[in-house]
Amino acid sequence: MSLVVVAGGDAEALPLGELARIVRPLQRASAPVFWLDFGLSVALFWSAAAGAAVLPAPWALLVGAGAVLSGYRCSVFIHELVHLGQQTPKGFSTAWGLLFGAPLMTPLFMYGDHWEHHGLATFGTEVDNEYVRRRGWIGAAQVLAASAWFPAGLYLRALALAPLSTLSPHLRDWVERRASSLGPLGFTQRALATAAERRARRPWSAACTLAAWTWTIGVLTGLIPMRFVLAVALATFGAVMINGIRLLVAHRYAADGASGRTAQLLDAVNYPRHRWRTVLWAPVGLHLHALHHLFPSIPYHNLGHAHRLITAYLPADTAYARAEGRSLAADLAQFLLDRPPRLAESRA
Length: 348
Prior knowledge:
The structure is a single chain. This protein has one domain (29-335). Helices cover 59% and strands 3% of the residues. The chain contains 14 helices and two strands, in the order E-E-H-H-H-H-H-H-H-H-H-H-H-H-H-H. Helix 2 (31-54) packs antiparallel against helix 3 (57-84), helix 2 runs parallel beside helix 4 (92-101) and helix 5 runs antiparallel to helix 6 (169-178).
């Protein structure tokens, strides 16, 4: 099986069948890696948020930065959960929901429409809630404004919209369509849930509502220190803002509606260099986004190995090599200036 791609004006064949064979052993998730990574990250998040609430200003800022980055890393595990599905390590989805998702009113089911971002008929279309359809300063402002509003939106959804929607079918339908997506472009259009999906969502929706009211009553009664709530809120805000910036360079945003896997590869971007810097703003495998669009079932901890195998197998001057981005700063400037997106230079 092969696929003809056009990059830099030259037709090149990517042997997708052979590449799939090479990376097939890497498509199994490691339970120890998942549990250790998330366990350390979520422990750091809550302890750093608590530390930021009690430490004096200079130290609070430093510890607060740790809460932002660890919280960001915890949140990105939702991406792995959606892709792994039944292959997720046993109990991990529940643990993520109880320790992080529900307390921050971010249920897993709200990211179920992420598959529209990978669908061959939906990538880059209006139903793709993760595809930026306007480049330049205005597009960036829209993304960052949606990101800034997002934590408050999740809180209001769990506190009031979700419980009230159980009393009104019309409100329920509106919430399902307009307030049930974690797509970073805001609460955008989504299909109505089926009866089975509604039954599966109820426990986690209730858990998020319980969390929202616990935060609210705890602050009003003084049982939960306001500084701790602010530390958690600011850490969450910082995490979604970093993700908003990352979103601007995750793709070249040149796709014109529905497309095939080839167009997704050429539109997405890999950042394999400067690994220890990149992991701060593109954690849990997000730095190899083009590879992820090519093989979405590879768990995050195997993406680096898969990237090395693929680049070693392919000639230097291929579409895959050109999917490499330059840097966060360079590609962000390209987006803000609304210059025509370009592929990376050949490695030859």
